[in-house]
Amino acid sequence: MAVIRSTGRKVAGYNGAALFRLVSLTKTSHNFGLKRSASSQATLPPLSTPAASSPVFEDLELDSSFLTPALDESAKVPTPKDRFQYKAERLPGSRYQFHPPKYDRGPLHPIQSPQSSDPTARDFVPGPFHNNRLRQTYHSTIAPDIMTLTYTHTPPGTVKEPTPQRLRSWDGSSPYHKNRPLRRPRGDPVLRPLEKPITFRNVPVIRSVTLAAFMPTAVKEPDRMVIARMVTQAITGTVPEVTEVKHSVSQWHIVKGQKSGLKVTLYGNTAYDFLDKCIHLVFPRIKDWEGVKGSTGDSSGNLAWGLTREAVALFPEIEANYSMYPAKLIPGYRVFVETTAKSDRHARLLLSSLGVPFQGELRD
């Protein structure tokens, strides 16, 4: 039982915070210019009336802590002993909880791996947590522009030309020919993908960017490999992979299996970050450089160009700490840009829209 001396009334059933609040409500308001949250002329509510329906709390917000019901004293608070007993009675998680399979056993297997976007998947990667500036520009401006530039109007009723069959069929002389895939053309030529009109379903996009460096002198000078790995990790933000020589070359004094190169493949925002630096920071500062050759490409939508050691030194990560890297040990790179385009023409259109300059004769 508590006594409120300012009013001379006895109030029971209120804790310290509520008692302090009630005392402040019953006093005369002396807040100079301050907004009051409850009426100062309100009387104390009877003990049998709920606090939420009393006039004292009418002006309070609904999420106020004074409207929170008190904890029932009959409710049992779990003790450490109770928690330990509950934990001992639970089933072990490693045996009875769901774990995605390690191997994919085909689409007909009853147990299927979850999608990579599922947090329980083994290949789940959280993010992305930000959109790269170049990537945001692509989705907001470049992709609609590419569809506009490549739009070809086909009048209604136009007969669609059939696509020629490039693979040979089986003659059916054997029962094993049934349901078999078609054979390749004679002479085993390289079948390039067919170029299809660009629609909203197949707008070209950057798939990956690969950097590769070959240093045959790193066999005798291991410092070249150390500096090359430092430079590569600095400009890409990814740890590179050391490559080995596949064939022995006596003129270069290298033997099969020696470590004489490195490579790294960038995906997603990392690839767009690297292209952004190349387009806006490195390419404009290369002296006497006209652009990427227009004849580059593998006829499948993948383009490439080279970066000399002088061009690599123009990256902001290297330029800011140029004294940390010996100038003669900075490597050059071969840059391979893989796109979803089916032809070099569409891939060149994509990179030109991003800002990559091309010069010379353009090859389809």
UniProtKB/TrEMBL annotation:
Entry superkingdom: Eukaryota
InterPro entries reported for this sequence: Ribosomal_uL5, Ribosomal_uL5_C, Ribosomal_uL5_dom_sf
Q: Where is the Large ribosomal subunit protein uL5 C-terminal domain?
A: 260-358
Q: Which Pfam families match?
A: Ribosomal_L5_C (PF00673)
Keyword Ligase present in the record's keywords: the answer is: no
**A GO CC annotation given for this chain:** ribosome
Chain coiled-coil ranges: none
Q: What keywords are annotated for this sequence in UniProt?
A: Ribonucleoprotein, Ribosomal protein
Q: Which parts of the sequence are annotated with region: Disordered?
A: 104-132, 152-190
- Which family does this protein fall into? Belongs to the universal ribosomal protein uL5 family.
User: What is the protein's given name?
Assistant: 54S ribosomal protein L7, mitochondrial
What species does this protein belong to?
Sporothrix epigloea
Organism phylogeny: Eukaryota, Fungi, Dikarya, Ascomycota, Pezizomycotina
